[in-house]
Each structure stands twice: as C-alpha cells, then as structure tokens.
Specification:
mainly alpha; single chain; 2 domains; 434 Repressor (Amino-terminal Domain)
C-alpha cells in the first residue's frame, strides 16, 4: 500500500504541482491528499470516499485511478474511524431540518397572501364599477 502513496507523491512532485493546486483542481481537501500521499488510510473519512479520492487524485496526476483503486482494495486496509459515523440521535436535526421548516413557513405565508388577495378581489360586489359604467359618475360632468 505504501506503493500507492509513493506513486502519488512522486507523480505530483514530478509534475511540479503543490498540494494547494491539487486541492483546488480535484476539490479534495489537502489533509486527505496528504493522507493519500503518506499512506495514512486511517485519516480518510471512509472506504467509499477513500476510493473516490484515490481514483480522482490518480487520474488528475496522470495515473490510472481505477488501477490504483484495485490495488487499494486488494490491500484490505482499514479506513477512517468507524465510531465517527454513528447515526445522529433521534432528536438531533441538522441544517436540513431547519431548512425544511423555513421552506414551509415561506410557502404558508405566500398561500395566505394569495388567499387574502383573492378574498379582497371577490369581496367587492362591483357596485363602483357599475356606477362608473352607467354614467352616474359622469352625469355631473356632462
């Protein structure tokens, strides 16, 4: 597995690419790129992400990313800290819960506004319009 790390580090340094440039180009955080280059598989978030990072980074450096992933899978390394992936407590909500609540509030306010405008529009019986059309409003002018 150290072979993968050394291939990545050598390919990057030979191409004259620094970690910040690789991070920007691949959208992989620099701490994960450093972990890939040092073979620190436990520092990667989980196995699926590790394989994705490895494939993306390898392809970016001009290596065969799929072949690197196959070598990685054959090595059966342990990736990440499984305890960090425990599900949230049943009462815990993330930003998605807040976003959902705000969305429903906006939808409710818009519906109230639409119903209010509809009721205002239909509550007038049209007597003002009838008076204007019949000429009673213009009678004094003519």
């Amino acid at each position: 597995m150290a072979d993968i790390a050394s291939q990545l580090r050598t390919a990057r340094t030979d191409a004259g690419i620094d970690i910040a440039t690789a991070e920007y180009a691949t959208k992989i955080r620099s701490k994960y790129l450093r972990a890939l280059e040092s073979g620190d598989w436990a520092a990667l978030p989980e196995e699926t992400a590790a394989k994705s990072f490895l494939r993306t980074y390898g392809d970016y450096l001009g290596l065969d990313g799929r072949a690197l992933v196959e070598v990685f899978k054959a090595g059966q390394v342990s990736v990440g800290d499984p305890s960090s992936y425990a599900p949230l407590a049943s009462g815990a909500r993330g930003s998605a819960g807040r976003r959902s609540w705000r969305t429903w509030l906006v939808v409710a306010l818009v519906l109230i506004l639409i119903v209010g405008l509809f009721l205002i529009g239909t509550s007038s019986d049209g007597s003002e319009a009838t008076a204007l059309v019949s000429g009673s409003a213009f009678g004094s002018v003519l």
